[in-house]
Design goal:
The complex is a heterodimer. By secondary structure, chain A is α/β, with parallel strands linked by helices. Chain A is built from 13 helices and 15 strands. Chain A has two domains: 210 residues, Rossmann fold, CATH 3.40.50; 126 residues, Response regulator (Rossmann fold), CATH 3.40.50.2300. In chain A, α3 packs parallel to α4. Chain B has a single domain, classed as ABC transporter involved in vitamin B12 uptake, BtuC. In chain B, strands 1-2 form a two-stranded antiparallel sheet. The chains are: A alpha/beta, B mainly alpha.
Chain lengths: 387, 292
């Protein structure tokens, strides 16, 4: 019962207090650079926010131990948005007005990032988002940057891979949440260009426990392959249902299923599923000997040593967010202000991170291309590069 | 559409439907005994799944882990009734309903902190390819779901018809006050009803986790479906509730087949509204019930 009581205490306190990062204590004289972070540490995106916080903690500790930036440490002030867009917005206001942060990392989710935007623009504080929604950078704001690959990049890549494998009659099954709807729009827009014909287009809702009906309909349309655009446990249900219906078609997906929980949930049904996402799952994809390989293997080794598990793609998004900010801070000449930091972020040119090599410009605040995508196939309960 | 394809939709509908039925039975039991809607019912479903995963992770064999999860959830249900609801028995039903919403939030938060934010998995009870019945693929786990549902419903029917406790429960559902005047310990009936409702929810959660995975937030969606099924069949009547669950599952599956998966939930909600409009007591309920 003590454990339960402790958990209750945490549950009650977390949303109210938030937490602040541990002080590593070096270089007492100079004021640290204060960076805010709005993460979903509780609520349905907690599976994203927790590894993101772990990665940020790890990187901040490393940077500060190495003497900080320009002799000043980085201090990260965390806020939990509890996977609630209104709370994300309130957290951003607090960080800007009360904490006076230079920049905000966050949020974990697309809707939560969008909710913080107007306040960032009002106050002139740059945001580096770890959410993958295309809208974050499609609907351009000079103050908002993004680290993951949005559907705008992943979908055309996956569709081209399907076409290249001769699977041109494609059935789509997507969720009716933000990720699935955004993905479906891009599939409809890019199918023709990629040389793919959509023969079925089914949807389901978050929380649905059985997709056999949708798959029965897809089976009747006789596609060459099925594209699953969903995240969370529903994707694993689809893979299981497809196998139970004896469907022979290969399954494809994107970053939404690039999680160990998908493999655990789908079990044997995950075997042979192909997915397009970044290189972190199999760092050899970066090419041994390259700078990106060195960066990724170093991060993976340190993350594993600290937390006892391999970093997932979300930890990678957070590594890039804090890394891009640290890099930009180091390039600022003169006074370090939010405005100078925004300008420096926009001038990021060829910074090597986990999600890829970032080159931001006044019209591109995602900074990644299809070249950062690789196709994996799940085999033996893990990812392997598809050949 | 050929016959095999049609029956494939029917199988899918009955699979979801029997899960809705088990959760809906929990709503009906508690409503019958206490006259309130227990909005924590979905969390019992969630607890059945996550506790089974936890017990299984401790090294217990799957059937033992399942029984332990169902028993533990039943105890949680009983504790919930005793600690949170019994002292407020004289309060208005609205207060009690709000307490159940609060209880559901506490259970959710605790599960999130104790078992983590990610999806949890269980192996199938009997792994293997699906069974082919005249071209219709039937999952082995679906057979388990049906089997467990039938056993649970038969046990419940026996309890209701053949035992003193069951007669007390039926008396409470007809008139709470009259039952108390006749010397029935209504507080005990309420407590046992919560225990059985929790066990039914947990059984459903345990039986589907191999198919769907589970997580701390799995309860809300299934709670809504179960509640809809209970209303559809007729709240307070166990047999009607089971039929309501199966009908809801079939409706969802067939609306994917004949209309569109986008409107699946809309169609079942519209049917629910129409039923409530035409027959407020549910498809099979009796009209003179006074409780709301």
């Amino acid at each position: 019962m003590t454990r339960a009581a402790a958990a209750l205490l945490v549950a009650v306190c977390l949303p109210v207090v938030g937490c602040s990062s541990a002080d590593t204590g070096a270089d007492e004289g100079a004021e640290p650079y204060r960076i805010g972070a709005v993460l979903s540490l509780t609520g349905s995106y907690a599976g994203l926010g927790i590894p993101e916080k772990q990665a940020i903690d790890l990187e901040v500790a490393r940077i500060n131990e190495a003497g900080g930036i320009n002799g000043r440490e980085i201090e990260v002030i965390y806020e939990d948005d509890a996977t609630d867009a209104a709370k994300a917005q309130a957290a951003a206001v607090r960080l800007i007005d009360e904490e006076g942060v230079l920049a905000i990392i966050g949020a974990s989710g697309t809707g939560h990032t969008v909710a913080m935007r107007s306040d960032a623009e009002r106050a002139g504080v740059p945001i580096v988002s770890m959410a993958g929604g295309s809208v974050i950078t499609d609907d351009f704001s000079e103050w908002v940057f993004q680290t993951p690959w949005p559907n705008r990049i992943v979908i055309p890549f996956v569709l081209k891979q399907m076409a290249a494998a001769g699977r041109t009659n494609v059935a789509l099954i997507s969720d009716t949440g933000g990720y699935g709807v955004d993905g479906r729009d891009y599939v409809l827009a890019h199918a023709q260009e990629a040389g793919v014909t959509l023969v079925a287009d089914e949807t389901f809702n978050a929380g649905d426990t059985d997709m056999s009906s949708q798959l029965t309909k897809i089976r009747a349309a006789d596609p060459d392959a099925v594209l699953i655009w969903a995240a969370g446990k529903e994707a694993a249900i689809i893979a299981r249902n497809a196998r139970q219906l004896n469907m022979q078609q290969p399954l494809y997906g994107g970053s939404g299923i690039a999680r160990q929980e998908f493999i655990d949930g789908a079990a044997e049904a995950a075997e042979g599923v192909r997915l397009g996402t970044g290189r972190i799952l199999v760092p050899e994809a970066f090419g041994e000997g390259t700078e990106a390989y060195a960066v990724a293997t170093d991060f993976i080794a340190r993350f594993e040593a600290e937390y006892g598990a391999k970093p997932d793609i979300f930890a990678g998004h957070a590594y890039d967010a804090i890394g891009l900010i640290a890099d930009a801070l180091g390039r600022i000449e003169g006074d370090v202000t939010s405005e100078a930091l925004r300008d420096a972020l926009e001038e990021t040119d060829g910074w090597v991170g986990i999600d890829g090599t970032f080159t931001y410009s006044p019209s591109d605040h995602n900074g990644l291309t299809e070249d950062e995508m690789v196709l994996y196939v799940i085999e033996g309960g893990t990812w392997r590069l598809d050949d | 559409m050929d016959a095999a394809e049609f029956f494939q939709y029917v199988i899918a509908g009955l699979k979801s439907g029997s899960i809705y039925a088990l959760v809906a039975l929990g709503f009906t039991m508690v409503y019958g005994a206490t006259g309130i809607i227990n909005f924590a019912q979905g969390e019992f479903f969630m607890l059945g799944g996550v506790l089974a995963v936890w017990f299984h992770g401790l090294g217990l064999p799957l059937p033992v882990a399942g029984i332990a999860a169902v028993a533990a959830t039943a105890l949680i249900g009983i504790a919930f009734e005793r600690v949170a609801l019994r002292r407020q028995r004289s309060a208005s039903p609205l207060v009690l309903v709000i307490i159940t919403i609060g209880g559901s939030m506490v259970m959710k938060s605790l599960a999130r902190h104790l078992f983590g934010p990610d999806e949890l998995s269980l192996p199938e009870f009997t792994p293997g390819p699906s069974v082919d019945v005249a071209g219709v693929a039937v999952e082995r786990q679906a057979l388990w779901v049906w089997g467990l549902t039938i056993v649970a419903v038969l046990l419940l029917a026996w309890l209701y018809r053949r035992t003193k406790l069951g007669r007390a429960m039926r008396a409470c559902s007809i008139s709470h006050d009259a039952a108390r005047l006749m010397g029935i310990d209504t507080a005990r009936v309420a407590m046992v009803s919560f225990g059985i409702a929790a066990a039914l929810g947990a059984l459903a959660g345990f039986a589907v986790t191999p198919l769907t995975q589970t997580s701390w937030d799995a309860g809300a969606a299934i709670g809504v479906k179960g509640f809809a099924a209970a209303i559809l069949g007729g709240l307070g009547n166990p047999v009607a509730t089971v039929i309501g669950g199966l009908v809801l599952g079939l409706l969802e599956s067939l609306s994917v087949a004949f209309v569109s998966s986008t409107y699946k939930d809309v169609i079942s909600l519209v049917v629910l509204l129409v039923v409530l409009f035409v027959r407020p007591q549910g498809l099979f309920g009796t009209a003179q019930r006074g409780k709301v």
